[in-house]
Amino acid sequence: MKLRQRIKSMNDNTVAFIGAGNMARCIIGGMVNTGYPAANIIAANPSRPKLDALAADFGIVVTQDNLLAVQKADVIVLSVKPQLMGEVCRQLIAGVPDISEKLFVTVAAGLPVSRYEEWLGPVRLMRTMPNSPSLVGLGVTGIFASRCSNYEKSFVDSMFSATGKTVWLDQENQINDITAVTGSAPAYFFYFMQAMAQKAELLGFSPDEAHQMVVQTALGAATMATQSSLSFADLRAQVTSKGGTTHEAIETMRNAGLELMVADAMQAAIRRAEEMAKTL
Ligand SMILES: NC(=O)C1=CN([C@@H]2O[C@H](COP(=O)(O)OP(=O)(O)OC[C@H]3O[C@@H](n4cnc5c(N)ncnc54)[C@H](O)[C@@H]3O)[C@@H](O)[C@H]2O)C=CC1
Ligand SMILES: O=C(O)[C@@H]1CCC=N1
Known about the structure:
Layout: H1 2-5, E1 15-18, H2 22-33, E2 41-44, H3 48-58, E3 61-63, H4 66-72, E4 75-78, H5 82-95, E5 103-106, H6 113-120, E6 124-129, E7 139-146, H7 150-161, E8 164-168, H8 174-183, H9 185-202, H10 207-227, H11 232-239, H12 245-255, H13 258-279
Parallel strand pairs: 1-2, 1-4, 2-3, 4-5, 5-6, 7-8
Antiparallel strand pairs: 6-7
Helix pairs in contact: 8-13, 9-10
(2S)-3,4-dihydro-2H-pyrrole-2-carboxylic acid binds next to helix 8.
């Protein structure tokens, strides 16, 4: 119970990332850029290239040995794909005698606390659901805590606040909901932008022009939404002149069932997270 017994200053905790892929990189980048000591961050991954890039970019400690990373750490961030999580947890429980003293944080979709408890025993665990804009400090991370102290919760809150906003969840199943609302959602926006750029190219704009115009418009719209007190519907109404072009575009989307399609897509993401909870 190291984190609870020995109240360290937040930045003194050693944090090990098991799996040094996209999401680990986002969180590590946020932590280092907001002043977390790089010497207190370890990343473990089977292959070298991502480790070398993390060491070069952020000056953190890297290793190909998961057990070594975990032995040195107070906080373990499990950042492998859900399908590999069981294998990784079994390796840790077999190789690290004081595993129950560590605080676990997982970023994996789907897998419930009960599954980690089957693999690791009754550990202190936070399930989190970050999203990829964490890389640029504009992420949203949902967090659900099991068996954790207030100190541990504030530590993890500060870790993820370095990458954007945090949302604390009271019920574990809300993690699946937030996966649909924010975790997977950057891809929805990229898909919409892709579709717009494709049409812009069909209209004769170069790929570069199409890309720039779509990105700038998305950035402008998102920035307006952050700076305005108006609802999305009211912001949309401001663009939509009576009898004008936007009205025609929006009605075409509405008649094609856009709102139902988005709701169905989000429900499909939740359903998949629930399936993963049962099958992985
Ligand atoms: N990509 C995203 O936008 C989001 C991903 N997540 C979650 O983050 C987790 C990781 O996803 P990504 O970073 O996108 O995947 P990724 O594939 O980029 O990273 C996973 C890393 O784990 C490494 N790895 C594989 N086997 C390992 C082992 N036995 N020990 C240590 N490392 C091992 C891989 O080499 C890879 O570098 C997943 O569980 C996913 O559900 C959560 C929210 C958003
Ligand atoms: O697609 C996935 O399963 C993960 C979780 C949210 C974003 N990526």
